[in-house]
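Q: Convert this sequence to C-alpha cells.
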Amino acid sequence: MWLLDFMLHSQTRIYLLGYWVFLAALASVIVLHQNSKRSSMSKKHQASTLVRKYFHLIVVATYVPGLIYDRQLLHVASVGCLVVFMLLEYVRYFRIRPTGQLLRQLLTLFLDERDSGPLILTHIYLLLGVSLPIWLFPGPCTPKGTLPGAGALVPYAGVLAVGVGDTVASVFGSTLGEIRWPGTKKTVEGTATSIFAQIIAVALLLIFDGTVNLNTSYSWIVGSITLVSLLEAYTSQIDNLMLPLYLFVLLMI
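A:
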C-alpha cells in the first residue's frame, strides 16, 4: 500500500510511469523486430553496434525526465528495474518455464564480445552504470542543487558518460572514423564527437534543469568529459560500468 501510494502521489509521477511503460514497450518491440530479422536471415546474425545503442538512447530518454522532475521516484524505479533484470536473467539462465527458453533466444542476439561467459549481463551493467551515480549521490531525498559547480551534474554522470558519450563515440566511430588511437580499435573521430555531444548535453541540462548551476566550473567539466572520453577509447573493461563511476568521481572533486 505504501508503494502504491508513493507511485500515485502526484500527477507528475503518474505521467512519468506511463511514459516509462511506453519506453519499455518500445524496447520490447526493438528486441522482437531484430529477432524477426534474424529468423529471416542467418541464425548467427548479431545485432549491430548501432542497434545496441538504441537501448542507450532509451536509457537517456528514461533517466533525464526522472532526474529533472522526480528523483525519488527514479531512485525507487531503478532499484525495482534492477531486481526485475536479475530475476529475468535467473529465469533465462536456468531455462525456467514458460519463458526461460524464449528469453535465451531473444537476448543472445544482443551479445557483444564482453558477454563471453554463460551469463548475459550487458543490460544489467548499463542499468547499474546510469543508476549508481543516483544511488551514490548524497541521499535520494537530498534537495536538488545542493552541490555547487560541477557537483550539480553528479546524478547525470551515467547519462552523460554512457547514454550520450559512449553512444555517440560508438556510432560515429564505427561509421565515420578513420584515424585510430594507437593500440586500440577506437577512433579519434569517435572520441571527438563524444566530447562535443556531452558538452551539448550539459548545455541542454542547463536550459531544462533550472537547479543545475555550474558557476565557474566549465573548464573542469570540459576536462572531466575529455578524460572520460579518452578512457572510453582505451579501456578494455566494462565501459557501461566504469565510465559513469569515473565521471562521478571527477565531478565530485
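The mean pLDDT is 88.
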